Amino acid sequence: MNTNKEEQILRRHLKDLANTSYYRGICVFSDFLNLNEQNIFLSMKNELPAVPYYLYGGYSNAERKMICFCGDERISKQEEVTFPITCIQIKPRNKKFSDNLTHRDFLGAVLNLGIDRSKVGDILIEENKGYLLCIPSISSFITDNLIKIKHTMVDTSIIDQNDFHYEPKLKEITGTVSSIRLDSILSIAFRRSRSSLSGLIEGGKVYVNSKEVLSNSYELKENDVISVRGYGKFIYAGTSYKTKKGRYSIKVLLYT
Question: Span 52-78, mean pLDDT?
Answer without folding.
Answer: 94
